[in-house]
């Protein structure tokens, strides 16, 4: 093992982000073609920006050095209550500026001096970045920085106590494992890099930690695979999905995960409750495809994966976590902010000596989101899918005949009539039964996934190309009008319906 999970790294220059840069830029030419089918439908004008970001990303290895954690208090503290206008904040080393952008207007921010990063991605000096209303984030500096803000915030304050050192220590251990995997013969088990799963209750900072680990790894030239199993607040595509995508560059702090080639499976609901078995089936499907992909690509196998999970950790939620750990063969379990979950997992996984269960502190900056905020966030993710994070995509309103589309639901309906069952047995709904749906007025505003399946019986095991939202149904002319991310025919005729709906406001 290349270091301990909670110990400090003695030589950050060996593990800092630029230490591996050259060796990895040599392998970069072999572009990762991880996923056979991409989200064709997804608008894709984020690439250029990510590349520019990369040009500007120059974290030096020293910027990731760490040691003690006692830090002098920051010299500027803006209190809650929505300061506005242009102002500067001086961040001391290993401190962070926590910001909730005003719900009504965007915030501009730039680095005037020093270096700082947002959730693992370094911010280019002097360039203004614009953050959308309501966004919650932190600007962290390893060595100190002066930040300028322009616009209103709901709150902004600096914090000198963060768990960042323990997080970067985890990164360093993962880095060691990736290097060891890369140096191992490709046909040996040792060539598999870390498969990290981040677990914890809702609002413990799972997505944020996943993002940091991915961005730090990408910064060093790895292309780790991000697997997002959080169907409520997923960050790869719209809610109701599980998805995976390679991360080739540090994640853009404003635009998020690039939608270049995600592998997406549609559950259709913002929590697994309505169809727990389907959730398991989809996680298994996704795991199998990734397994195949890793088998043929030593580079992505060595880089490994970071898996984000749901905050549902009790009862069935806990079972689903165990199922995901098993299906994706996770070998590092990072438990955020919950002692009970940590000891339960440690206990149940002690029979697997190759699995490390590591407890990490939750950041005090993580914002708790109530039900209505989560609902809003889901709505915003769907809007973002069609219109882009900066409202710069152009979705299209298209029309189709009823007969052109075949819409299915997964689950529901009795599996067999009572008469066909053994005496005393109750008919149960088959969770993976496909049910053909007749177009009705209830489908107004429904968000449907477009399946890559060629035949109905392939629908459950197929990934999806993208999504449409039904905006109008004309029963007289038997026509449906829908919003799609692009013009032209749908990439498949089979559509999957769940409970997701979106009303453009
Ligand atoms: N250090 C921080 N400072 C300010 N905001 C933060 C910080 N860390 C996380 N946040 C914000 O807190 C919110 C919750 O964090 P995050 O999404 O990582 O939690 P989560 O455990 O994944 O939640 P869930 O399980 O509900 O999806 C997000 O809006 C995130 O941007």
From TrEMBL:
Family matches, as HAMAP family: Clp1
GO cellular component terms, A-Z: mRNA cleavage factor complex
Keywords: ATP-binding, mRNA processing, Nucleotide-binding, Nucleus
Coiled coil: none
Pfam families, per database record: Clp1 (PF06807), CLP1_N (PF16573), CLP1_P (PF16575)
Residues that hold ATP according to the record: 96, 136, 203-208
Residue ranges annotated for the Clp1 C-terminal domain, each copy included: 394-504
Localization (cell): Nucleus
Lineage: Eukaryota, Viridiplantae, Streptophyta, Embryophyta, Tracheophyta
Start and end residues of each Clp1 P-loop domain: 200-388
Region annotated Disordered, chain positions: 1-25, 178-197
Gene3D superfamilies in UniProt: Clp1, DNA binding domain, P-loop containing nucleotide triphosphate hydrolases, Pre-mRNA cleavage complex subunit Clp1, C-terminal domain
Gene Ontology BP, a term: mRNA 3'-end processing
InterPro entries: Clp1 (IPR028606), Clp1/Grc3 (IPR045116), Clp1_C (IPR010655), Clp1_C_sf (IPR038238), Clp1_N (IPR032324), Clp1_N_sf (IPR038239), CLP1_P (IPR032319), P-loop_NTPase (IPR027417)
PANTHER family to which the protein is assigned, alphabetical: CLEAVAGE/POLYADENYLATION FACTOR IA SUBUNIT CLP1P, POLYRIBONUCLEOTIDE 5'-HYDROXYL-KINASE CLP1
UniProt keyword Signal, yes or no: no
Comp. bias (Polar residues): 12-25
Predominant localisation class: nucleus
Residue ranges occupied by any Clp1 N-terminal domain in the UniProt entry: 90-181
Protein known as: Protein CLP1 homolog
């Amino acid at each position: 093992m290349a270091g301990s999970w909670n110990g400090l790294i003695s030589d950050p220059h060996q593990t800092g982000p630029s230490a591996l840069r050259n060796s990895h830029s040599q392998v970069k030419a072999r572009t990762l073609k991880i996923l056979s089918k991409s989200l064709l439908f997804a608008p894709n004008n984020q690439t250029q920006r990510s590349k520019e970001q990369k040009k500007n990303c120059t974290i030096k290895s020293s910027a990731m050095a760490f040691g003690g954690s006692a830090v002098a208090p920051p010299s500027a503290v803006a209190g809650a209550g929505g300061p506005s206008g242009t102002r500067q904040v001086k961040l001391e080393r290993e401190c962070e500026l926590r910001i909730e952008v005003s719900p009504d207007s965007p915030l501009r921010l730039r680095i005037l001096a020093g270096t700082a990063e947002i959730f693992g991605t370094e911010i280019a000096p002097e360039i203004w970045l614009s953050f959308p209303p309501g966004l919650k984030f932190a600007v962290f500096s390893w060595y100190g920085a002066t930040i300028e803000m322009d616009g209103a915030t709901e709150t902004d304050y600096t914090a000198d106590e963060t768990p960042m050192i323990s997080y970067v220590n985890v990164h360093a251990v993962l880095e060691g494992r990736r290097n060891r995997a890369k140096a191992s013969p490709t046909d040996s088990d040792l060539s598999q890099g870390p498969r990290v799963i981040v677990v914890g209750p809702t609002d413990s900072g799972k997505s944020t930690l996943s993002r940091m680990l991915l961005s730090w790894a990408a910064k060093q030239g790895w292309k780790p695979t991000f697997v997002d199993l959080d169907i409520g607040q997923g960050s790869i595509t719209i809610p109701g999905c599980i998805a995976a995508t390679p991360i080739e560059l540090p994640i853009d702090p404003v635009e998020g995960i690039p939608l270049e080639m995600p592998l997406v499976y549609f559950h259709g609901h913002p929590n697994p409750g309505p169809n727990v078995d389907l959730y398991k089936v989809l996680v298994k499907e996704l795991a199998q495809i990734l397994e195949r992909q890793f088998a043929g690509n030593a580079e992505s196998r060595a880089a490994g994966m970071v898996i984000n999970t749901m905050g549902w950790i009790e009862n069935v939620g806990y079972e689903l976590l165990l199922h995901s750990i098993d299906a994706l063969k996770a070998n590092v379990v990072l438990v955020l902010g919950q002692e009970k979950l940590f000891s339960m997992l440690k206990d149940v996984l002690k029979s697997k000596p190759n699995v490390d269960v590591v407890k990490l502190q939750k950041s005090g900056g993580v914002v708790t989101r109530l039900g209505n905020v989560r609902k809003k966030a889901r709505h915003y993710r769907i809007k973002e899918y069609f219109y882009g994070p900066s409202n710069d995509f152009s979705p299209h309103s298209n029309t189709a005949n009823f007969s052109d589309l075949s819409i299915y639901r997964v689950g529901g309906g009795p599996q067999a009539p009572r008469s066909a069952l053994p005496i005393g047995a109750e008919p149960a709904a088959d969770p993976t039964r496909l049910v053909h749906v007749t177009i009705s007025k209830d489908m107004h505003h429904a968000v449907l996934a477009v399946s890559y399946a060629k035949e109905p019986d392939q629908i459950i095991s197929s990934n999806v190309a993208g999504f449409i939202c039904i905006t109008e149904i004309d029963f007289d002319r038997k026509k449906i009008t829908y919003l799609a991310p692009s013009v032209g025919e749908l990439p498949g005729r089979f559509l999957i319906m769940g409970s997701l709906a979106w009303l453009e406001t």
